[in-house]
Specification:
Blueprint lengths: L6 E11 L4 H11 L4 E8 L5 E11 H13 L3 E6 L5 E12 L5 H12 L2 E5 L3 E8 L1 H11 L4 E6 L3 E4 L3
Antiparallel strand pairs: 1-3, 1-4, 2-3, 5-7, 5-8, 5-9, 6-7
Length: about 170
């Protein structure tokens, strides 16, 4: 009888020395195990010599544990923290371009922006670009809702996360 592996969304925070090729070695560790990176966000910290990388992936616990151990052994890795299941704030930002020149769409979009606490970043007579920030699942549902209001295109940042107090 085959044992069913529990697959879940994982969020990993990796603190590294800000040097060339570190990100390539990390992503190689994932691909070498057949693990796909769903999103990745990287930027320098308060100390410009260090970078924090947030990776989301989907997979089972056993494979994730092996990947985390391998990443921790890589050169220039300072700290690896699996935020999955931990108290952490997770956010993502979407930018969406809408065609709001259809009759009534402009008012509907403006009402949504006000109601959802989004921001209109750019607008002309035909299109607008709005910024939406929140949890990934909720934002995906809202982007689907925007399809009905003339969504032309969108882009997103990937998840950023910060663990609640230590």
């Amino acid at each position: 009888m085959e044992v069913q592996k529990e697959v879940q969304k994982n969020v990993i925070s990796i603190l590294v020395n800000n040097k060339p090729d570190v990100l390539a070695r990390i992503s190689g560790t994932f691909s070498g195990r057949g693990f796909n990176i769903e999103s990745i966000s990287a930027n320098v910290t308060r100390d410009p010599a260090k970078t924090k990388i947030i990776i989301t992936t989907i997979g089972d616990n056993a494979t994730l544990a092996r990947i985390l151990k391998q990443i921790a052994r890589l050169v220039d890795i300072i700290e690896v923290v699996d935020l999955t299941g931990r108290e952490a704030v997770r956010r993502e930002m979407f930018l969406a371009r809408l065609n709001w020149s259809k009759e009534g769409n402009r008012k509907k979009v403006e009402a949504l922006v006000e109601n959802k606490n989004w921001k209109i970043l750019s607008a002309d007579d035909h299109t607008c670009i709005i910024e939406m920030t929140g949890e990934n699942g909720a934002l995906l549902e809202e982007v689907m809702m925007l399809e009905k209001l003339g969504l032309e295109d969108f882009t997103r940042t990937g998840v950023v996360a910060l663990e609640n107090g230590l």
